[in-house]
Amino acid sequence: MTLTTDAPVFPIMTLRIETWSDPVIDDLGHDPRSSYVERFWLPVLGPSTVWFLRQLADGLDSSPDGFDLDLVETARALGVGMRGGKHSPMLRTVDRACRFGASRMIGTTGLAVRRRLAPLTRAQAERLPSSLQRAHGEALERPRPSHSALDLQERARSLALSMLDLGEEDLSIERQLHRWRFHPSMAHEALRWAKETRSTSPIEPATHRRFGADRSNIAMSSGDDSVRMTQPSRRVTHVDRPRIGAVGIAVRNDVGSSFDEAG
Predict the structure, then answer these.
(1) Pick from 118, 141, 164: which residue ends a domain?
(2) What are the tens digits of pLDDT across the range 184-193?
(3) DSSP β-bridge partners for residue 235
(4) Cβ-count burial 48-63 (b if 16+ within 10 Å, e if not)
(5) Residue 260 burial (10 A CB sphere; 0-12, 13-18, 19+)
(6) How many CB atoms lie within 10 A of CB 101?
(7) What is the side-by-side strand order in the sheet with 249-252?
(8) First to last CA, the chain
(9) Is the CB of residue 188 less than 8 Å from the CB of residue 71?
């Protein structure tokens, strides 16, 4: 794969979107749909580029191996135009994502996209409005959790098994793990492990229970709201908001026992 920073060559109408893997940024960065990107990257990238990256993140959640992006349709969805050749608003949006390191061209017909955006540099943060500069400084001072690969793997497997027991389909399980910011390869491995585990230790399948349908069991959001989940063998009573690479969970094995928080 040959990566370049060149803009797509007009009149290209389709880009092949692929994941740009970077272990450091994937661990330390921020999802394009996160509040950090909305607050702090928005003044730097501009609204069309931020929304473009959010659409690509949704697309890669659905198709982790990559997908073809129709630029004309995307331009209409973003409210920008394709007229003007290589200087069209849509192609300038793609070029801006490349110039700020959120993506890279693969030849002239492909685009490698980061699943996470790096924290702002000092120079970028200094260009923010004063109120956002203060808020950004406070955000950087807040400690960030550290999790080992084994911890993340255990969490991913536990969540995959819970969703499998609730009758969720394979594709939906992997997509939800992606939304909870587990790496695609870890999400795939977690689903495989859960299916193998359940095939050797089957339980009575859930009846009329679909993931997201029974709100007394599971409630999710991608914002500041909590995520709640229950499992057949143990009741998960509280899950903190999704964090990069992990989901914190508090588990109570029986009524009246104390809470043990992980994550």
Answers:
(1) 141
(2) 888 899 999 9
(3) 252
(4) bbbbbbbbbbebbbee
(5) exposed
(6) 15
(7) 235-239, 249-252, 260-262
(8) 36
(9) no
* 245: number of Cβ within 10 Å: 22
Q: Is residue 12 domain-shared with residue 132, that is, in the same domain?
A: yes
Nearest C-alpha neighbor of 172 from the set 157, 187, 183, 185: 187
Residue 159, both tokens: 């969540």
Note whether 121 and 15 are same-domain residues: yes
Q: Give me 34's structure tokens.
A: 């996160």
pLDDT, one tens digit per residue, over 217-250 is 433 433 333 333 434 444 433 434 333 333 333 3
Contact (CB, 8 A) for 167 and 206: yes
3-state secondary structure of 151: helix
CA-angle at 158, arms to 156 and 164, nearest 5°: 100
- Of 141, 159, 176, which marks where a domain is finished? 141
Residues in the chain: 263
Q: 22 and 77: one domain?
A: yes
Residue range of the domain that includes 157: 149-262
With CA atoms as reference, report the closest residue to 181 among 145, 156, 148, 150: 156
